[in-house]
Amino acid sequence: MTPFRSRRVTDPASEPEDPYLEIGRKLFAGPCDFVKSCAKLEQLPDMDRAEIAFAGRSNVGKSTLVNALTGRKTLAKTSNTPGRTQMLNYFALGTPAYLVDMPGYGYAQAPVEQVKAWTRLVQAYLRGRATLARVFVLIDGRHGIKEVDKDALDLLDAAATSYQIVLTKIDHLTGAARADRLAGTLDALKRRPAAYPEVLATSSRDGIGIAETRAAIARVIAERPMG
Predict the structure, then answer these.
(1) Distance between the two ends of the chain, CA-based, in angstroms?
(2) Strand-pair category, 88-93 with 32-38
(3) N- or C-end of the chain: fewer Cβ atoms within 10 A?
């Protein structure tokens, strides 16, 4: 595990030029196409490439971030209704990787048994998908990590699945408030063994942190090629 002293916050205004910024730009400028929605493990695509998954509580902006990263307005379906994403939605990011939009946790307008089925699917996916390189966990930057988010992080830690925190809607915070949120989020990861030592701050509306998130994904893919 990386010593905590090396953990850091990614602030686009202060970071030195990252070569993966250009690599990520080119990667996401290429084709990214919807592949399939999966409600069962046996429906998942072949494990022939790295997989980058996006998790977060319902309505945190997962689909919106996927659209912002790929520069497409409707690649991933968005909705003001929490719980819209009900399956594992696969997108082919060219040939190097799949992007996986996971069901939102914490709330869903669906029967209890259906929510339990999604939960079982996600747990099995996290534990059994060898090609899953990293889960980007989206946290609402206005509120920080909530109890429901802690439960999700506990699940990821228990599954020994590498994950990285992405703060969304960070444009709602400025100055000291933004710095405090970033620092507080970083501090909350101190004793979490599967957490990647970096926090990304984004705004899909204003484009904040989108290039840095693309770079982070490109780096993961480069470090863990599949196929």
Answers:
(1) 27
(2) antiparallel
(3) N
Domain ranges in the chain are 25-223
Read off the pTM: 0.87
Other CB atoms within 10 A of residue 224 CB: 17
Amino acid at 213: T
Hey, what are 151's tokens? 């439960």
For the record, the structure tokens of 64 come out as 């919106």
- Cβ atoms of 94 and 31 within 8 Å: the answer is yes
- Class of the CATH-defined domain 25-223: alpha beta
The answer to whether the CB of 146 falls within 8 A of the CB of 60 is no
Locus of tokens 């699945």:
161
CA separation, residue 6 to residues 77, 93, 160, 196 (Å): 37, 30, 20, 10
Residue 5 is given by DSSP the state G
Identify whether the C-beta of residue 70 lies closer than 8 Å to the C-beta of residue 207.
no
Q: At 216, which amino acid appears? A: A
Q: pLDDT for 45-81, tens place per residue?
A: 999 999 999 999 888 888 889 999 998 876 765 444 4
The Cβ of residue 126 has, within 10 Å, a number of other Cβ atoms equal to 20
